[in-house]
Amino acid sequence: MAAVTILETKGLHREFGGLTAVDRVDFTMTQGEVHALIGPNGAGKSTFVGMVSGRIWASGGRVIFDGQDITARPAHARIRMGMAYTFQITAIYARLSLFENIALALGERSRPRVQEALDHVGLTERMDEIAGDLSYGHQRLLEIAMGVAQAPRLLILDEPTQGLAESEIEGFNALIRRLAGETSILLIEHNMNVVMALADRITVLDTGRILATGAPDEIHADPHVQEAYLGTG
Amino acid sequence: MKVLGLHLGLLALLAVLGMILPAYHQGNLSRIMVLATYAVGYNVMFGYTGLLSLGHAMFFGAGMYGLGLAMQHGGVGAVPAFGIGLVSAAVLSAVVAVLALRTIGVAFMIVTLMFSQAAFLSALYFGEWTRGDEGFVLAQQIRRVGEVDLSNPVTRYYAALLLFSVALLLTMRMTQVRFGHVLVAVRENEERTRMLGYSVWSHKFWAVVISGTISGAAGAAYALLFGYVGASFVSVPYSIFPLLWVLLGGAGTTIGPFVGTLFMFYLIDYLSGLTTAYMLVVGIVLVLLTLFARAGLMGEIRKRWVPWLP
Amino acid sequence: MEFGPHLILAILEGAVGAAVLALTALGLSLVFGIMRVVNVAHGEFFMLGAIVAWWVATSIAGHPALGFVAAAVVAPLVAGGVAVLGDRLVLKRVHYDPEATIVATIGILYIIQQLALMTYGPEARPVEPPFNSRIALPWFEFGETGFEIYYPWGFGTTTYKLFVIGAAAVILVGFWLFLSRSRIGLVMRATQLDREMATAFGIPVSRVYSLVFGLGAALAALAAVLIVPIQQAHYLMGGDPLLLSFIVVIIGGLGSIRGTIVAAVLIGLSDGIISVFFSPTLAKIIATLLVALVLVFRPQGLFGKKPA
Q1: In Å, how far is A62's CA from the nearest CA of chain B?
Q2: CB neighbours of C282 closer than 8 A, spacing ≥ 6?
Q3: Which terminus in chain A has less CB density within 10 A, N or C?
Q4: What is the complex's ipTM, to 2 decimals?
Q5: B181/A53 touch (CB, cutoff 8 Å), yes or no
Q6: How many CB atoms sit inside 10 A of residue B111's CB?
C-alpha cells in the first residue's frame, strides 16, 4: 500500500524580531506513523508544531494537511479538521472536573465516552474530581487523554512525558502504540528512551533547520546528529 | 430536573409574593426584578465568559433610550418601542464586541469604560432630545399594551416578573447546552479552548451580544414600567452596580444576580434613610467581596453545600 | 476679543491644566508601570489632596502663603498615607491580581468619596492663593497709525497661574531626577523590570509596592493642592482627573513615564483650547472615543514602541 501523506510543510518559516526560529523547513509525515521531532532547546521544535497547529502564524511557507492547504486557516479550524494538540506546559481546565475537561474535548457530555477516554490513561475513577487537584503527572495524563478523546487524525504532543514517573511513561508508551497505525502522531520528546521505543521515523531539528530525517537506527548512526545532539551517542 | 425545579420554584415564589406583599415591597420587588435582569445579562459576560466589562450602562441605556425616544418623540407604541430598545442594545453590543474584543484583560475593562463614558456624554450632548441629566417622563397614557396599563403596580409587578423569568430561564438553559459549556471553557482557559477546536472569538462575540441585549431589555423595561428616562442610568455607577450585584450574589451562578440585587437594593434602601452617603456601603461591600468572598453568596453556597447549583 | 488674544488665553488655560494633569497622570502611570495594576481610585486621592488642602489652609491663620505651604506638605502625606494603608490592607491581600485590584480600587474610590461627603460635606469651597496679582498682557495690531501695542480688556493671566506651571515643571524634573539618580528610584526601576529578580536580589518588593502606591497618590494630591486655589474643592472632583489621566496614560503608552508627560502636555493643552472654542461635552465625547480606539488598535500607545 502506498503511503498516504497526512502532513506536509513547504518552506515553513518563522522569524521573531529578526531572529529566525524556523528556517524554511520542508517536512512530510505519512499517515499512521509515529514521528518524533528531536533537537536541542531552542531548535525551533515548539515553534514548528505551533505553526502546524495554527497557534503561531508562519512568516512564510505552507502547511498542507490531508491534501489541503491550511496555511491561512485559524487554529480552531485546523483542530476541527482532525488535529489535536497537547501543550508543553500543561493546559487543562484546572477548576473544572475531569469529566468536564474530557467532555469539552469530546464535544459531547456522554459519561460512557468520557469514561472510555479516561480509561486510556487510568484516571477513570477520578472522573468527578477537580482537575487542578490531580498531581502534576496525572494532569499531564489528563491532557493526553483530552487529545486522544478528540479522535484526531493527527495528534501533536509537545513533550508529553516531561514530569511523568517511570511507570506512567510505560503506560504512555503502551497508549501510543495502541493509537499508532490509525492516528498519526507527531511527538516532540527529549526522553530518548521514549523516542527509540515509539518512533517510526525521527526528524532532528537544529537552529531551525532539519539536520536529518530517518528511521531511528539511521538517526542513531548519523555522525552529524551524534555530533550536534546525541553527544557521543 | 432539580435545577429546573429550583428555578421554577423561585419564579413561583415571586409570583405568590406579588399577591401578598404590601404595596411598598411590591414596588421594590418590581424594580429589583428589572435590575436583576440587568445583572443576569451582565453575568453572561462576566460570570460565564470571564469578560469583565466596566461599561454595561451603555447597553442598559441603549435599551432605555431606544424605547424612550421612540415613544416620546416617535409616537411609537409600547411593544414596537420595546423592540427598538432591544435592537438598539443588540446593535451597540455587536459594535462594541467587534472593537473591544481585540483587547483583553485590563485594556478590555478600560475600553468598555471609555465607550460607556462616550455614550453617557452623548446622552448629555443631545439634551434637546434626551433632556440630559434631568431626563424625561413617559406619560402614563402611552405606557400601555392594548388595554393593559403598565403603570398599574400589580400589572407592573407581573410584567417585571415575566421579563425576569425569560432572562433567568434563558441563562439556565444556556448552562445546559454546549454554547454555555464552551463559554465557561473560554473563561477557564482560552488557549486550551481554541486548541480543542472551538472558535474563541465567535463565542465571546455572542456572549457580549446576548449580555448586552438582555441588559438593554432591562433598560427598556425600566423606562416602560417606571416611566422615566435619564442620563444617570448611563453613568459610571450604573456600570458598577451590575458588577457589584453579580459579585455579591455569585458570578457564574444563575440565581446569584437576583440574590445580589435583592440584597444590595434593600441594604441601600435602608441606609439611604440614614445617610446621603449610602454609596459608602457599595465601596465597603466591593472591597470585602474581593478580600473574602470572591465567589459571592451563591458561589460560596455552591462550594460548601450544593455542588449541583448551576 | 479678537481671535489672536483669545487663542493665547486658551493656550495659557490649557497650560495650567496640562501642568496639573501631568502630575496626576504621572502618579497613575508610575503605579501602573511598576505594580502593573490600574488604580481606579486615583482621582479620589486627587480629591483628598484638595480637601485636605482646604482644611489645612483654613485652620492656619496669617498670610495665605503659610497655609498654602503647609497644605503642600500635609496633603500629599495624608493622601500617600491613605494609599499605603489601602495597599497593605487590600491590594497586597489580593496579590495585585489585575482584575481584583480594579474591583477593589472601585470600592476604595467610593469609600474615600463618600467619607469626604460625610465629613467635608457637599459644598464646593475655595482656597485662597498665596499670591495672585493680575498680569495684563499686551497685544498688537496694524492700525491706521501703523504697528501699535495695546492691552485688550480682559486679556491677561495671574501670577499664581504662572506659578502653577512653573511649580509643576520643577516637580516633574525633581521626580525624574529622583527616579533616575537616587537609590530608591533605582530599586523601583529594578522592581519594574523583573519582580522575581528583584526579590532574588533582596529588594523588599512588598515595601516598594506600598511606597510606589503611596507616591502615586501623593503626586495626585500635590497636583490638587496646586489647582485648588483656581478650582474649588469638592467631593466629586475626582472623576475628571481620573478620566483624563487614563486618557493620558493610554495615549502615552501604558507605564511609560516620558510618554505620559508628553501626552499630558498635549492633552491638557488641547483640552484647554478645545473647550474654549467648542462645546466641552462634544470635545470629551470625541476624546473618549479616540482614546478607546487607540487602545483597541494601538495598545502600546501613540508614543510607545510596538512589542517584538
Answers
A1: 20
A2: B125
A3: N
A4: 0.89
A5: no
A6: 27
Contact B198, B185 (CB under 8 A): yes
Q: Could you tell me which residues are beta bridge partners of residue A84?
A: A155
Please list the pLDDT of chain B residue by residue as tens digits (310 residues): 789 999 999 999 999 999 999 999 999 999 999 999 999 999 999 999 999 999 999 999 999 999 999 999 998 999 999 999 999 999 999 999 999 999 888 789 889 999 999 999 999 999 888 898 888 988 888 888 888 888 899 999 999 999 999 999 999 999 999 999 999 999 999 999 999 999 999 999 999 999 999 999 999 999 999 999 999 999 988 999 999 999 999 999 999 999 999 999 999 888 888 888 888 988 999 999 999 888 888 988 888 888 888 8
A75, A104, A150 member nearest B181 (Cβ): A104
CB contact under 8 A, A94 and B188: yes
Touching chains, A (3+ CB pairs < 8 A): B
Q: How many domains does chain C have?
A: 1
Residue C307 forms part of a structural domain: no
C-alpha cell of residue C143 = 492700525
Q: Work out the number of other CB atoms within 10 angstroms of the CB of residue A217.
A: 10
Q: Is the CB of residue B202 less than 8 Å away from at least one CB of chain A?
A: no
Here the CATH number for the domain that contains residue C96 is 1.10.3470
Q: Are strands B136-137 and B228-229 parallel, antiparallel or unpaired?
A: antiparallel
Q: Is residue C304 part of a domain?
A: no
* Residue at C203 is within a domain: yes
| Residue C273 belongs to a domain | yes
Best residue in B45, B53, B92, B110 for a mutation probing chain C (most C CBs within 10 Å): B110
Task: For the beta carbon of residue C22, count every other beta carbon within 10 angstroms.
Answer: 26
Give domain limits for chain B. Answer: 2-234
- Interface mutation vs chain B, best among A51, A76, A81, most B CBs within 10 Å: A76
Secondary structure (3-state) at B250: coil
Give residue ranges of A with CB < 8 Å to any B CB.
Answer: 53, 55, 74-77, 79-80, 85, 87, 91-96, 100, 103-105, 107, 109, 146, 150
Residue A149's nearest CA partner among A103, A183, A185 is A103
**pTM for this predicted structure:** 0.88
| Full domain range(s) for residue C19 | 3-297
